[in-house]
Amino acid sequence: MNPETDYRESTPSQLSNKDILPVLEMLVLSLDLTLIHTISLDFQMLLLSAEFSKMQFQSGEGCNGVCIMSTTWKDEQHPSFISFISSFLTENSFRLNFVSIAPDFIFNCGGVSVAFIFVASWDSGCTESIFSRIQKLKEQFAHFYVVVTLPTKDQNDYFIRSYFKHGMEFGRPTFIPVQDLEMGFEKIVKIAHARGVCKKHDAIAKLKTEREKSVQSMDVYVKVVTSIPGIDSHDAIALNQAIGSIEAIAKASKEHIVENTDLSTEKAETITRFFRDPKYYLGIKLK
């Protein structure tokens, strides 16, 4: 979006409970990166559960929090964009203050502070200063995000190269690329407010508990499946992803296993015999 765009014609949108979902998904991925491809959580079901059902946005019913905007960042923006930000925050029950601060924004929501750098205009000539600033601020804030406006493919490609060139560590901090300024600020508010809601209801601790339960269940699953002769942990994970539960594996045909996994025909036959041939599973010694 062009920085000269007049944002005063835009209609600020209200946050809703559905805005919590993508943020929870983003946050939980950082809990255990080694398991994100093998263990998943049903976030929709979590939000409908008794523990999460009370997580509500307060828009229209009081103050959701305080947004502190850097005076330096404000002076660099077009007045109409600042007007849009002010309207958006008012619509979603946030107070706005202008203060000389190191990040571009600090949100105080539900007892948690969330800091942001908002790169409103990506300039390839300023990458050194941008990443140097990010490196300093990530050590100062427990909850820190970087939103970068990248409207073109060339800018996005250059940003990716710069990200790796400057040795950024995945998730420290989390970068959120957006196509325009309006989208970028909406992302900032959603992340900050979802963080506050999660803090208020101890949602992250609940997600960690769910993750631990999933890990324990997976450990048991792998131990059972690898007790089949010739089946290793890789095979067990492949079966979990493609076939499902141990009961489903027991019912699956050899052809179905071969078609949906990378297991060999020999291994698939071993599995089907293990579950269906008493002479086979009673005559072997489990590992």
TrEMBL record:
This is Protein PARTING DANCERS. SUPFAM superfamilies: RuvA domain 2-like. It holds the Pfam family HHH_5. InterPro entries: PTD, RuvA_2-like. GO terms for biological process: resolution of meiotic recombination intermediates.
